[in-house]
Amino acid sequence: MGSGDGMARPREFDEMAVLDATVRCFWSRGYEATSVKDLIQGTGVTAASLYNAYGDKRGLFRAALDHYVERGIMERIRRCEALPPRQAIGSFFDEILSRSLNDNEHKGCMLVNSALEIAPHDREFQRSIANALARIETFFLHCINAGQADGTVTLSQSAEILARHLLGVLMGVRVLARVRPERALLEGVVAPALALIAPSDGKSV
User: Fold this and answer.
1) What is the SS3 assignment for 34?
2) Which one of 13, 97, 123, 157 has the lowest number of neighbouring Cβ atoms within 10 Å?
3) Per-residue model confidence as pLDDT tens digits over 56-72
């Protein structure tokens, strides 16, 4: 595995580009079906360099999943957080619908895919994926708390219950989109959830 080779030197590759390529490999094939050879071909980096930087396939997956969460999901959340609370939730789901309907390979969400494939029998990744999902739930919770405070979100349910419901809707959309990426179906899942959080007086966003 080229132990020691390059360990004391800066990495001899563009780490962001390699992580982007690694995400694409795992995202399209899943963890189990992705071989080290696939990763070498996909990244264009030698096996020795990958091993020196990430340790093994598991380490590569860990780095790729973290990269996917931080550069994809969390960046989306940061964009949406700049909006008024109820609009932030609507914009978040608009992006999810757009990505799901324009996903020609039906890859879905790498985080959700990993929750289904790996989390049930891998405690480390179960914790990591659960933490990422908790961060999404926290985004919903903050938006709902703010919306309930300014009157743009219903007070008929607690913020915690509404946030959990939105997380479940998100998971359902991302799984459904892998096998039935139909606009009417996915919008039909999201629309009632957005209607549920609206205040009873119909106050606009």
Assistant:
1) coil
2) 123
3) 999 999 999 999 999 99
